Amino acid sequence: MKLTLPLIIALTLLLALSVAPTASAAASRASVCPGAFADPSPANLASLRTTTVCLLNLERRKRGLRPLRANRRLQAAADRHASDMVRREYFSHESQSGASFVDRILGAGYVSPSQAWSLGENIAYGTGRLATPAAIVWSWMSSPGHRANILKRSFTEIGLGIAIGDPNDGSDFRGATYASDFGRRG
Hints:
- This protein has helices spanning 5-19, 23-32, 45-62, 72-88, 101-107, 133-141, 144-150; strands spanning 69-70, 117-127, 157-164, 175-185.
- By secondary structure, the protein is an alpha+beta fold.
- Strands 1-3-4-2 form a 4-stranded mixed sheet, with helices on both faces.
- Helix 3 (45-62) packs parallel to helix 6 and helix 4 (72-88) packs across helix 5 (101-107).
- The chain starts with a helix and ends with a strand.
């Protein structure tokens, strides 16, 4: 079968519809984690951070995993990275200074270098409806690498940072940039 552009578009749409959450599943998440479909703004970032962690823990609980606990040092590292990406207009796990997520998390004092630890990071951004916590978590769960971090059994703690703005255009305040830092100490 020869794949033509209309056929590729139709197959892409069919795939998107087959993996998109159903309306009842979306409503269920919204009732368990209020604010799942809220548009990010400077006034609601704290509640959206809580909502996003709630949605991540919902995914973990569905698979029999323990929920992640919020950690203020992981949150500090995640907040700084999300804000830095928007301010400096880049999107990467490596900061423009060359620091990796491990460097940033260790720099935040999460663990001492001599202590045993495991770390991970997910980043995402969206504009409009794609900037809501539900959309961000759905995109992470649709990506094998991001999904693996969310569902990694050994991770016990999380820090979630959200910055208003698109990392490709820091002046676009319709969007939001997310960074989630995962960890386990000891």
